[in-house]
Design a protein that fits this description.
heterodimer; A: 120 residues; mainly beta; seven-stranded mixed β-sheet; 13 strands; B: 112 residues; four-stranded antiparallel β-sheet; 0% helix; globular
């Protein structure tokens, strides 16, 4: 199993250019996520997809769009890149675990290796 | 809303020293708590977790106990190695919530 894969690993864009970050998982997880990581700010959720066919905004969705193409793939698009979008982007996937009382806990999130994006 | 506060780094230690990274949380519900680790150049991976009060998560010599009374989930390791050098993130997720809330991360460097 490859787990979670992301392409590309590195990208340099000029302000105003567009690009799509690709993510795929082979663990049959229902939920997928896009985060950005900036120094001193931890990980911030951009968008997530709780299940195939649904997407929702996270903390910092402005300037991004997403597509849940199928259960395996979840892409992130920057329509008009800005220097403030310089960051490391991580894709992740997970599923819920059913507890003994029937409640649901978020299971382990599996992360891809990241895409380092620089916008000049 | 939910939030996680963890001690700021960076933390530099000598090999075999004791490591503690403090983590406290604010949550509206009854959350699950996690520690994730990020080794240089890699994505995050789960280190340990706890889903209810007084649960202790443990893995690779690391431990953390879910303390509801102090809303804390401090990470400890009794004797660190150079290979433990990484960024450590505390995180939480409410019951039935799809999302994780992360702390800012603590960079730990262990010197031989």
């Amino acid at each position: 199993n490859a787990g979670v894969t992301q392409t590309p690993k590195f990208q340099v864009l000029k302000t105003g250019q567009s690009m799509t970050l690709q993510c795929a998982q082979d663990m049959n997880h229902n939920s997928m996520y896009w985060y950005r990581q900036d120094p001193g700010m931890g990980l911030r959720l951009i968008y997530y997809s709780a299940s195939e066919g649904t997407t929702d905004k996270g903390e910092v969705p402005n300037g991004y769009n997403v597509s849940r193409l199928n259960k395996r793939e979840f892409s992130l698009r920057l329509e008009s890149a800005a220097p403030s979008q310089t960051s490391v982007y991580f894709c992740a996937s997970s599923d819920f675990i059913r507890g003994l009382a029937g409640d649901r806990f978020l299971g382990e999130q599996y992360f891809g290796p990241g895409t380092r994006l620089t916008v000049t | 809303g939910n939030s996680v506060t963890q001690m700021e780094g960076p933390v530099t230690l000598s090999e075999e020293a004791f490591l503690t990274i403090n983590c406290t949380y604010t949550a509206t519900g009854y959350p699950s708590l996690f520690w994730y680790v990020q080794y240089p150049g890699e994505g995050l991976q789960l280190l340990l977790k706890a889903t209810k009060a007084d649960d202790k998560g443990s893995n690779k010599g690391f431990e953390a106990t879910y303390r509801k009374e102090t809303t804390s989930f401090h990470l400890e390791k009794g004797s660190v190695q150079v290979s433990d050098s990484a960024v450590y993130f505390c995180a939480l997720s409410d019951l039935d919530d799809y999302k994780l809330s992360f702390g800012a991360g603590t960079t730990v460097t262990v010197r031989a």
